[in-house]
Every structure is written in C-alpha cells, then in structure tokens.
Amino acid sequence: MTAVDTAIEDRVSPWQTLKRGLALSPELRTGLAGTLLLAIVSTVGRGVVPVAIQQGIDDGLLTPGGPDVGYVAAIASVGAVILVITVISGYYMNVRLFTVSETALAALRTRTFRHIHDLSMLHQQGERRGVLTARVTTDVDQISQFLQFGGIILIVSSGQVLMATIVMAVYSWQLALVVWLVSLPLVFVVRYLQRRLAEAYVLVRERVGVMLGAISESVVGASVIRAYGVQDRTAERVDESVENYRVAQFRALRRSVVSGSVGEVFNGFALSAVIVAGVYLGVGGQLTVGQLTAFLFLVTLFVQPIMIGTEILNEAQNAISGWRRVLDILETEPDVADPGDDGTGLPAGPVDVRFADVAFSYPGGPRVLDDIDVAIAAQSKVAVVGETGSGKTTFAKLLTRLMDPESGEVRLSGVPLTRVSFESLRRRVVMVPQEGFLFDSTIAGNVRFANPEITHAEMYVAFSELGLADWIDGLPQGLDTPVGERGEALSVGERQLVALARAYVADPDLLVLDEATSAVDPATELRLSSALDAVTRGRTTVVIAHRLSTAENSDEVLVFDAGRIVQRGPHSTLVTQEGSIYAGLHASWVEQTRSV
Amino acid sequence: MAWRCLGAALDSGRKCVDGDMPDKGVITRGLRVLAMAVRRQPRIFTVAAFGAVFHSLLMLTGAFVNAWIVDSLVVPSFRSGSVDTGVLALVVVVLLSLSLFKITGIFIRRLGAGSMQFRLQAIHRREVTRRYLSLPVAWHQKHQTGSLLSNANADVEASFVPIAPLPFAVGTLVMLATAVAALFWTDWVLAMVGLVVFPILFGFNVAYARRMSPRMTRAQQLRADVSAVGHESFDGALVVKTMGREAEETVRFNKTADQLRDSLISVGRLRGLFDPIMSSLPELGTLLVLVLGAWRLSTNAVTLEEIVRVTMLFSVLAFPIRAITWVLADLPRSVVGWERVHGVLSATGDMVYGDDRLPESTAPAALSFRGVGFSYLPDNPVLKDVTFDVPPGKTVALVGPTGSGKSTIASLATRLVDPDTGVVALDGTDVRTLDHAALADTTALVPQLAFVFDDTIRNNISLERDLGGGDATVWQALRTAQADGFVAHLENGLDTQVGERGASLSGGQRQRLTLARALAGSPRLLIMDDATSAVDPKVEAAILAALKNSTRPASVLVVAYRRATIALADEVVYVENGRVVAHGGHEQLLATVPGYANLVTAYERAEAERAAEGEFDSDEWDTTESDREVSA
Fold it and tell me: Which GO molecular-function terms appear in the entry (chain B) (predicted)?
C-alpha cells in the first residue's frame, strides 16, 4: 500500500471509527465527567503565573508609593494555593485516565484475542501470524497512547487555548485578536507538515517489516545458509534492509524537526506583533506594563498548545487507524459460526457421517471439491487417499467444520453440522492436522491441553495404550521433557506422536487424522495404527494418508481425484479394479515399499 | 546480578523476572553504555551537543531579551506616552532573529542526535546479524527464534533510545549552570530561589527515573509476554480450534493482559504524579521570586527588569530539565537491551573453518564417520561411537526408528554441528580442517523440513551461487527433482516470488524446490534427510529414478524408510538409539538384524497379518491382537 492510499484511507472517517470504538468499549466512559472536570481545574491552574505577574507588577511593584510587598505576598499565596489544587486535580485526572483506559483496553485485547480464535480457519490463515498478533498488541498500544496522551493533551490544549484567550481578552481584546490572527495560519501549516510526516512514517513501517523479514531468515534459515555457505548473500540482504530502514528513519526525523520548529517561528512572529501592537495600545493608555508583560507569557501559553494540539490531531490518525484495524477484526462476523444456544448437541453414542451433494471452492478459486455424496457408517474406519491436490484435506476440513461447504450439507448422526454447537462438536470430533503444532511446554503440558483433568499416571497409561511407553521411558525427563518452541526440541516424527496422544486423550467419537504420522518410521507407524485400531474401536475414524498401508488396513477406502470421489469400497475390491486410480496408487506404493 | 539473570534468560529462554534485576548501579552502567555510544560516534555527538548548547543559551537569552523589552521599550513608552520607533524596530529584529537562531540550534541538535541514534542502531543490527551468520547451528538450536529476533531489533533499539535526548540533556546542564551564574549576577537573594528550586527539580527527576525504570522494565517484559502468548496461540490456532480450547486460551491470554494492565496503571500513577508536580514546581519558584523581588525592589536592590528576567528564567528552564529525565528514565531499558546485544556479540563457540581445500575434482566424494559421539544436552548422548563409510559414488541408506539420531548424523556430515568425540572426514580429510567454501561446494544437504527463502524460485535454487549454465542448470535441477512441471505452470515461472517461508507453495512443492537447490550445485556428496516425506509415492519414485540415471553421479547418504529408496542403496547403515547396530547389504541385514527386518518389512508383515486375519471371524479382534504380538 502506498503512503497516499493510507493517507486517504485514514481520512475516510476518523470520527466514525472513534464512535464505533467508544460504542464497543463502553468501559471508556466510566467516570468521564469527573475526569473532564479535573482536567478543566488543572488547566485553569496554568493561568496562575501570568495573572499573578500582571497583578504583582501593576498593583504591587509599580504602585506609586513604592512596592507593596504585602500585596504581592498575598497574590503569590493565592497563586500557590491554586497551584497545589492544580497538582492534586492533575494527579487524580491522570490516575482516573490511566485506570479507565487501561482497564478498557485490556478488555478490548482479550475480546479481540477471543474473536480471532472464533474466526474461521480460512480467515486466520489469510493473515500472517505477526499481523494477528499486532491486533492484540501494538494496535491496542497505539489506542492507549492516543487516549492517555493524545486525548488528554487535546483536551488540555483546547482548554489552555481557551483560557489564554479569555485572559488575553480581559486584558485587551485588540491584542488578543492580534495573537489569534497571527497564530491561525499555524494550524494549516502544521497540518500540512504532519501529513507529509505521516507519509514518511508509512515508509518507515514498511521498511522495518522488510528488515525484520530479512533478519528472521538469517535466524530461521541458519542451517540452510550454513550448509550452502551463502552467509554473504544473506548478510548483504540484511545490510541493505537495515540501511534502507535507517534512511527512512532519518527522512521521517527531518520532516518531524521541520514541523516541530514551526511553532518557534510563529512564537517569534506572535511576540513581535504583540510588542508592536501592545506598545502602541499602552501608549494610548489602553494597556498596563503588567498586562503587556503577562502577554509575553500568554503568547507562549497560546501558541504551544495550538502546535501540540495540531500535532496530536494528526498523530491521532495513526492511533485511529490502529483502532480501526482492531474494530475491523472485531466486527468481522465469523463465517463459520458457532450456533451457540440455538444449536444442538450431537446425540450420544457413535457418530455417523453424511456428505450430501457437497461442493467447495476457496474464495476466488476453482472448485476443489464437487459432487461429494457419501455416507460413513458409525464406528467404521475409512481411509481417504488420492494425489496431492485431489481434495483430501479439504474433505477433512469440511468434516470437522473448519470450513462450511459452498453448497450441500454435512451431517453428523443426522444433525446438520452447522446446527451442532461448538461445545459438543469440538468435544466429540477431533482432528489431528499434519503439522502437529506443539506449545512451548512439556510433553505432559501439551497432552493436558486436550484434557486438563488428566493425571500423569493416566497420561502414561494413554501413551502405553498407543504403544509409546518405551519411547517416553527413553526420554531424559519422560513426560516432563520440554518440547521447545513449536516443539522443535523433538524430531518431526516425535512431534507427531505427541499430537496423536493429545488427540487420543481428548476421547472423541469421531477422530480425523490428516497424514498425522507422515514423518514416523514404518514400524512405529504400524504399531501406532494397530494400537489406534484397538483403542478407537467403537469410534468412527477417518484417516487421510499417502502411505497406503493405512488404506489396506481400513474398512473402506474413498479415492479422491481432482475434487471428486472416483472410487470407494474395501481395499481388497478396489485394488483389483484394473486401470483404476487406486490400483495405480497402490502399485506405485508397493513398488516403493516392498523388495524390488 | 543482571548478568546471571540475562544469561539464564538467553540460555534457557526463561523469562527474566523483575525481582532478579538489581536496581543498584543501573545508572552507572547506563552511563557506560552512553559513553560507549559517544566513543563510537564522537563527531556527530559533538555537533549535536554544540547545537543543543547553542539552543539552550538562546533560550536563556530569550529571557534576557523579554526583560530588556519591558525595561527599555514598554516602561519608557508607557511612561512617556510616545514610542521610540527605532527601539521598536530593533526589538522586532532581535525577536525574529532569536527565533531563527533557535530553529538552527534545534535542527543541529535533533538531526545530529537522530543521525547518531540511527547509525548506532544500524551498526549494531549489522553486527548482531553477522554474529548470527557466523555462530554455529548448535548455538542457534539453544536459542529461541523470538529472542534472537528481538536481540537484533527491539534490544538494539532500546540500547540507543537515550541517545535521542542526550545532546538536549547536555545542553540543559550547560543552561542550568549559566542560569545560576546569571541569577547570581542579577541578585543573590533571587539566586537563592534558583539554588533551592533547581536542585529540588533535579533530585525529583532522579528519584522519578529510579522509581519509574523498574516499572517500565516490567511493563516492557509483560508486553513481550502478551505478544508471545498471542503469537503462539495464533500459531497453533488450528489445534486450538480443533480441540475447542478457545475459552482456555482466552483465559491464559487474559491473565497476561491483566498483568500488563496493572503494570501500565502503576506506570500511569507515577507519571500522573510526576507531570503536574514537574510543571508546577518552577511556577512556585516564579511566585517566590515575585514576592522576594517586591521586597528587594522596595530596598532598591533590584530593578523591575531584573525581576521580570528572573521570572522568565524560571519558566524557560522548566521544560528542558525534562530532557535529563528522559535520558535517566530510559537508561535501565538501555542497559538491559545492551547487555542482551552484548551477549550475542561476545558469544563464543564459533565454528572455525580450516584453510584446507580438497583437490579439484568432479568425482564423487567419500564420507567417513570414525567413532563419532554427540550430545545436545550433557549426559544425554544422541550418538555413541558411530562409525561408517559412504564410499565414492556409492549410495548409502541410513535407516533407523524415529528418534534414533539419523538427522543428527546428516547434520554432522555437512558440518552443521561438530562431534564431541571422533572424526567426520571427506575424502579422508577431517571436515574441521576444510575451508567453508570447499565444504559447501562438496556437500549438499536436503533437510527434513524444507526451508524456502522469501525470494524468487530462481534465487531459491541458485542462492546466487555461480552454478555455470545459468537458467539451464536451474531447469535441469528442477527436472531431476520433478519440480519443473509445477514451476512451468506458474505465471512468472522462475521469477515467481514464493512468499514468506514459501507460503504460496504446498509442502511437497517446497521439498522438491529444496531438493532442486541441492542438485543445482552439482555436489559430490548429497545428503537427503527423509527429504521426500511430503511427496506423493509416484513422484518420489520418479525423483529416485532420475537421481539414479543422473549424468553427474554423486555419493549419496539418504535417510529413508521406503523400500524403494533403500533398494537404490549399495549399502545400508542401521542405527538404533544413537549407535550403528549393523551395516551391509539390504538382504544381509534383513536376514541377520531383527530390528532392521522389523522396520523395513513392517508393511509386508502387516499385509500378511491382514491376510491371516481374514481367516478369523472379524469379531475375534482380541485374538488377532495377541497373535500379532506373538508374531512380532
């Protein structure tokens, strides 16, 4: 996305985003009136010094009979009391602000986090993990920055401008008008400069992304880089992206300094104008020395908030676009939604499966499944085979309702899948995906993920039932062996063993295995599969496999080709259908796995 | 000690708890980081500091100018009732040029500081990634990807955050000293107000920085925790979904989010107290000056101009003093960041490459393992006394159960890791004495999990090595790896960008690309670590056939389960629990090594069992089961 696009998009309607945001986080309004009142009090305090100086000079220092020390002291005491009140109300304003906004935003984080999990798998996979994480981290941080600094500074700044205007107008409306006229263009200049700055920051963000990508390859691809001796190539890329980032940073800084200095220029202009006009007004008897001196303070008090306020307004656009991104996610209706209370549970007992005229295509893509009309009997074991891209995995995803069919219907035990509450569905139907993701915990921690109540002893029994007790025994810390980040401390095959055990202890009635043992050695695989046969008897099992040993071993085989089921029946029958897809796959399998 | 804590965090990935962080000496250590930064960029720092001092002195001048205006223009004009236009013009010129000079000062200071900060970040990012590229794979395996990324990014950034306000702070110190001198020059009584207020301001700042820094560090840590939980949970989203654990994951996330909330509120409370006090203290000083000024004026000790000047001085100084706070407040973060960065930069255990080159040759290479032992963790050996050969031009299959150490052998053969004991040799030369290029040109590893760069197909294959033959070589490699078909069908062919980690490709396609990458370099020794597991049987058969008929034969070490792969091998090395249990011809091992036979004939036996099973009534599962146990 180009900088211009972003700028335009951001201008669409910040107010609307703000309104949506406040509507979705009603907690933000807690005690708002009180906080605003405190803000007003602490803003008024900012006027103390100029007024005290004016009063002190005119009525205390320049009194005809010499300085009136007592009067000045009285003025100063009143000022000091007001200052103390200002400090106290400022403190309470800040505390309320921080407490309310952080509480609301923590809730927003959690809500967004949950919502992302509720989105469909397709939705989740459409985004990079880092992008999703940003929604619950940096984007929310931006909102918090805006509310705590931006928001309040905006209020305080407007208050300060108002307060300064009133004091100035009381002293001299003519001079106040001069200050206003001279300072007004500042708003437009700063806005223009800030827009350019925003563009520069878009580039900075883009380049930091590229840089992180390059650095991450040097870490994640360390062994490949080493094996091919291509460090120099990677180093060059990293260097280039680091340098590009630095250049973008400096460019943004240059623009930031330019827009930051504008206030100084206007301060100079405003002061000069005030002096010139003020001197003539004073000579005309319309202004006192104290009042003009107070104006010297007031000009700064007036120009500074205008500048800061304008800057904040523009920075607010960043925050608002962060907020908009969070809201966009929150307001995305999960397209594979939990029917919740409207749904029903699956009837107790074994589960059968029915695909009625199911078709599916990924958004914007061609049909990947068509005319799928098949019934799977309860308690049977069905193997799904076919070449890569034939639709096997899509079939499994529809079966477990990770996606909904484009047309047709999937029914479990006669209940349409879309009517089954997730609570019941996820408890009764479990799928083991090919890349068995493990959390950065121990083996036990990962297995417990599926069943938090399970004890160590029960877990050990579960591994034994799967024929994996000797593997666990061989590990340095047994079930308490840490698996590392994403399970990387284990070998690929071992990760699959843990993922399988995890699914097993979930105790489902329908178990779907998607090439869940592809990286395990044949003997272990077969041992597992026979163990699974034993322990899954009484359940319905659907296994997607490219090792045809699984197919040989199942009650029925579904053969997929180009998105359709082209053959079905027991292995022994299919293999004899000469010239069929299955016979071809099987011949190739046998050729590879048997003695030549 | 922070070092211990940081070291532990680096080594084990354990989180560094706040309590472990000593607060003592953090300022001192932070100043040392600053000194290092200044030493590395002395010229830019001098320029920036000059700009800052210039600007600060101009701000003081501003106070004098304002007082001078009141005294020599406002009061005389008001008294006399007429304006001296000459003085008025001079005032305007002085005010405008003062603005201009101040802006110049701001430009020099901020651009100088920024330039210094960004340069230091860039330099250290490059240095850190250079270390990543030269530290051995074994070191990488001990460190979490996430922390290495943040070492190169967030930690480098944190190290140099205080650089941005540093010149300003230096300018402020000069300004403070000058202001105190100016105060004394004006009137000693009014100066005393300064001597009271400035130290209070300064002390208050330091106390604030001290209290704030542990809270900030904790908030930063909790931010990282929230991010880590979020990232991991979204990474495992499919598992969360299929197991229906969304609620539990939300509870887990909510816990860290709430901790972060509490920590940010505690940061807010402190700042909420600090900000109003900081802006009110100088104002109280101004009021005090007014009262004392009235008294001094009544004794004719000072003039009105001098009173105005001093009050202006106070208001001018109020803001810059915060620059010192910024530096101090960011020091602890800087120290933590720098110590992590330093940890990477000073990490030892580099894999040193030798200078030896192998004689120029296109003939297949010989690989030998002699008494090789290896362990990732102490007392938990993965390999024990492994000895075997891959003779030139021969194909050796490495077979063994899951977790028996095959992948480790593959890593040792390409010197991704070094053995604890024993020797790995290529053509009789210990691989540790070979230079890196010689090693990389001779061997090629196709890993179990395919890693693809975010680049074009062409660059993923060639890795910009000098392959000779250009695209023809690339296509040849793709053909052998059975990947030419799908690449030819891509709209941009070899120029197709494959995306982050090859996201646009299927698992089988990624594996074939990495295989083509290995073949493109015409290695003399090819090592395949179960590199076709995500490839369909038919495709794998075609790949194996193409390898066999290749015009440029290489020695091959292949980790395999499939019989067809094993059948291609001249010899089989069978490992179990990190030991070579047997080696020899397939038939020979089949006859003499029960473990091996068990592994490779698993499918046949299963089939036989099934055949036998057919003779039983299908209800008699338990009998079948026990029969199976007996026969195994």
Answer: ABC-type transporter activity; ATP binding; ATP hydrolysis activity; ATPase-coupled lipid transmembrane transporter activity
